[in-house]
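Below is a filled-in request sheet from our internal design queue. Each sheet records the structural input a requester submitted and the sequence that came back. We keep these sheets so that new team members can see what a complete request looks like end to end.

REQUESTER: design group, bay 2
PRIORITY: normal
MODE: inverse folding
CHAIN LENGTH: 235
BACKBONE (tokenized):
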């Protein structure tokens, strides 16, 4: 009887694990992450949801580590750890358009370069970001595009090489894209890259792992983006 019970419990645990994995696979874009929060945000006065920050873990951590910056300025964080521009596209309506912001700040592509979901193809990443911009503009939302942050390597994808060159090349393409689309392009990269470092890593003064900013790094980013947004909102 004990053996039967043990087998039954093991089978149940295995089945539950498989079900969780299946649900995770089915929600590839992670719509559930902000499902409840989005309902709450839609009910806020317009002044409290004027800007949405779309991004990956860099944006996700920013909203968690520095919540006052977001709350006090009517900024909404919609970052999801590990995501690529492919996933941004699929959740853009749910996590940006439907919230009715005036502005969306797009910080993207770290995980594209890290090949989290797809082999990295610069043209495809640029096309994805171009589509995000077009979706925003078609819905009366002002897009603000930012540089991809410096990263010389990825701790979770050590086999990826040449990331500094890829990011530098991508940022040139993004600047040209912003100019073509007639939108603002905000440069975090120049202030956050390690000075005089040939590897073009994220400045160790602003990171603990070479990819994600610390609070000091976020303070620098805030000093760059906040005046830009306030100028736009004043128009």
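RETURNED SEQUENCE:
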């Amino acid at each position: 009887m004990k053996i039967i019970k043990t087998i039954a419990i093991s089978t149940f645990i295995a089945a539950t694990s498989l079900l969780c994995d299946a649900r995770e696979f089915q929600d590839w874009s992670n719509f559930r992450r902000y499902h409840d929060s989005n309902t709450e945000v839609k009910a806020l006065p317009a002044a409290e949801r004027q800007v949405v920050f779309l991004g990956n873990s860099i944006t996700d951590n920013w909203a968690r580590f520095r919540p006052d910056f977001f709350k006090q300025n009517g900024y909404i964080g919609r970052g999801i750890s590990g995501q690529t521009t492919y996933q941004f596209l699929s959740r853009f309506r749910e996590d940006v358009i439907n919230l009715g912001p005036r502005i969306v700040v797009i910080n993207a592509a770290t995980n594209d370069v890290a090949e989290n979901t797809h082999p990295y193809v610069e043209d495809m990443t640029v096309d994805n970001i171009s589509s995000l911009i077009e979706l925003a503009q078609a819905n009366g939302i002002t897009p603000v595009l930012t540089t991809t942050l410096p990263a010389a390597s990825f701790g979770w994808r050590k086999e990826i090489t040449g990331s500094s060159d890829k990011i530098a090349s991508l940022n040139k393409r993004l600047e040209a894209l912003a100019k073509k689309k007639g939108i603002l392009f905000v440069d975090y990269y120049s202030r956050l890259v390690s000075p005089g470092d040939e590897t073009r890593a994220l400045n160790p003064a602003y990171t603990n792992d070479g990819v994600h900013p610390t609070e000091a790094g976020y303070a620098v980013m805030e000093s760059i983006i906040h005046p830009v947004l306030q100028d736009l909102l004043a128009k």
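SHEET NOTES:
- The chain is about 50% helix and 10% strand.
- The longest strand covers residues 51-55.
FILED BY: M.R.
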